[in-house]
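Recall the central idea of this unit: under ordinary conditions, the amino acid sequence of a chain determines the structure it adopts. In this exercise we apply that idea directly, starting from the sequence alone.
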Amino acid sequence: MGNSPLLITGFDPFDGWQDNPSRAVAQALDGTVIHGVPVVGRVLPVSFTRTAAALAETVAALRPQAVLLCGLAAGETGIRLEQAALNRLHSERGDNDGATIVNQPIDPAGPPARFSRWDGMALRDALVDCGLPATVSFHAGTHCCNLVLYHSLELVAGPVGFIHLPCLPAMAAGDRSRPASLPLATQVSAVHLIADQVLTKASQGVTA
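Accordingly, the structure predicted from this sequence is:
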């Protein structure tokens, strides 16, 4: 795999939020080195029409050996590791272009679902062992988070997974519902740990 990078992506703020922890995490880890592998952080648009193209262009340019995709799950209490992507887009909540989409396939010719190439259970246990709240999920939703996971699993042969992150404290403080939150440093540490575990196993020839 040579010096092929690890790609970590986040999203722009959306749905009325002024920030997005996934963007902050991707930016924080951009330019670092994890397990001897250079990390490239990129921020993707929240758009049913533009996100897939931005992802494909990034992957084509970088040819990453592994991809960790991150996104916001407002109300989530910890780190949520997604195990599957459905071949489906559906949201009455508009994207950042103001578009909604109703029950449409991502790829009419693609499989009904694709599965993350990582050991989600082991990653959850590693996070919990370090005192970080974490769960495993088998449904990444039907918005752009699911979209990028589905496409990445087709574009990249190596490890690929999606990490849903909770709000940042400042986001929670400014919202009436006071959703659960974790500090940025904690979220960065969690994604760094996941990356180290994934790259360690990949160096041993294990991707799932």
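The first helix runs from residue 21 to 29.
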